[in-house]
Amino acid sequence: MISGRGSNLVAIAENVNNGILQGECIIQAVFSNKRNAAGLQKAEQFGIPTHVISKTGNYNFHLLDWLRSKNPDLIILAGYMKILPAEIVRAFPQKIINIHPADTKEHQGLNGYKWAWEKKLAETKITVHFVDEGLDSGKIIGQRVVDLRGAESLAEIEKRGLQVEHEFYSECIKMILERID
Ligand code: GRF
User: Residue 138: CB within 6 Å of ligand 1?
Assistant: First the structure.
């Protein structure tokens, strides 16, 4: 599930095609709440079916219906910028995961890299966690440190962080899928 750029989606799709997720899973579909999300075109380039619900009325009702129709083993949030309501979270217990660009114990919500930059942190922690009904409050699956020493701009911090995100998310997905088998 995405809302924007989709660089994590691309990293995961590449790993499914010829990386650590090869033979481990298929990406059934990519969902976006934004019709113009750049990640949708990227999904199409990988031949992955896409689905968009952009209207606001009954949004979550239609989303839950669509998610159920897919019967997924795992729902992967990758830059999905909306909060999932309780009825969706409860419909897929321990099956929805998210990647957060900071330590969820220290910083929740938007702008995780900006937070690290403004706090002048020497390191930050990318967090992969289960999604619960709160904001970035679900059980932590794993964390990976990003060394921020010497970074001279927010852009540099984002670059280093995303590099870690792109490897770490697929590793966590692999680990979770092995547990499901
Ligand atoms: C990533 O930094 C991720 O940690 C956060 O949103 C961003 C999504 O980037 N949840 P992208 O769309 O995967 O490029």
Answer: no
